[in-house]
């Protein structure tokens, strides 16, 4: 994260340094051009000033007003505005006009220049000629007395008088130096100020980019809560809005993918469970069929080899074979019933019937077994109507009653009771005997699961009955369960009811 922040802040630094560099380079270039060209440019400008002054005075001489008082002000303007020193003399040396009090020194310099020109001296008294024509000569000359350089123009006016004009070059050089120094000072301040301004302006531009970078990093970590706050309509704000849209799309897509992945996992788990159930089913069926098949095979071989001359033994062997075949037949029928219930192939027919009448019929079918066990059956014989599939509920009650008979101990008491709860009634079948171990309670509804395998085998149980009960109640979207008591076990189911007696207490009748 620190590395990313460093890179993000370097954008501001790079932009600031780039623009400051451009400003500094521009200032430096201007300063170099100023140092190199300003003095020459200024000198050429002064040359134009000298030429313009000569032309204005020459025009006045043509008009004959040069020596009049009316021209005094114009003459002063030419001298002061152009910073010119001008001397006008006649051919015999008489001063006509002068802009300075030191006329003699200026006239002596003028005469030296004229004499040098007449003698055709190439050096022109150390004067560098810059421009010459029929009217005037312009050049650069050093004043040895003052040790300074001047621009000098001298020529003949229209009235025949001579004109000498000069302007100091030192002022030009000084002006150029002052200008260069000012440009350098202003340039340094401009670079510093521009650097500060550009830094903050750049930060204002790059801050949204930094926010978008942080948002993109969170998006890469599947955190889509952070959103960019759009404050304008420029390109960065549009990018932020698009980033928000992208975040929402990614969040929705990833959510859909996770949902699809979870569904796929559930499907895979279901498939694995089905495969595991298939393996367990084959293993349990094989195990359940192995014992009766072994008995049938053994007794059949014994019947064939050993007991041909003993009718009593032959009858016993035949009874065992028939009994084991009957157990196998019952188990296969239960398996087919369970398979139809689990895969939804068995249609549910909901109808209203008297549950008491159904229990009375199941009890009558098991009357002989109840008598053999010495069981006492208690249940309410008052009519009680429920909504369910009558034939499947009969199978449930038959399984519960059969299970209660086979595990009956102690007082040998079986009690069937009702308990009304809003729109359902709980039908319970209780038998005295040993409670079911707590670790086995959740497993008794699983196919072929047996708490006491030896005892189950003794009465011919296959471990499928309670699985059929669970499948039947699930097919009708009703509940079933088991409760341990100190003196026995209670199995229960819940059924829809449309009417009931006002008296919701349990009603019992004892049948010996």
List the helices and strands and how they pair.
Layout: H1 2-63, H2 72-81, E1 85-89, E2 95-98, H3 103-118, E3 127-132, E4 136-143, E5 148-156, E6 162-168, H4 169-220, H5 235-305, H6 311-342, E7 351-354, H7 355-365, H8 367-373, E8 376-379, E9 385-388, H9 390-406, E10 413-421, E11 424-432, H10 453-458, H11 465-475, E12 480-484, E13 488-496, E14 510-511
Parallel strand pairs: 8-10
Antiparallel strand pairs: 1-2, 1-6, 3-4, 4-5, 5-6, 7-9, 8-14, 10-11, 11-13, 12-13
Helix pairs in contact: 1-4, 4-5, 5-6, 6-11, 7-9, 9-11
What does the overall shape look like? rod-shaped
| Sheet of most strands | 6 strands, antiparallel
SSE class? alpha+beta
N-end to C-end Cα span: 85 Å
- The unreliable regions are 1-8, 453-460, 499-512
Q: How many helix segments? A: 11
The largest beta-sheet arranges its strands as 2-1-6-5-4-3
Helicity level: 55-70%
- Global Rg: 63 Å
What is the element string, with H for helices and E for strands?
A: HHEEHEEEEHHHEHHEEHEEHHEEE
Mean pLDDT figure: 78
How many runs of DSSP E, i.e. beta strands?
14
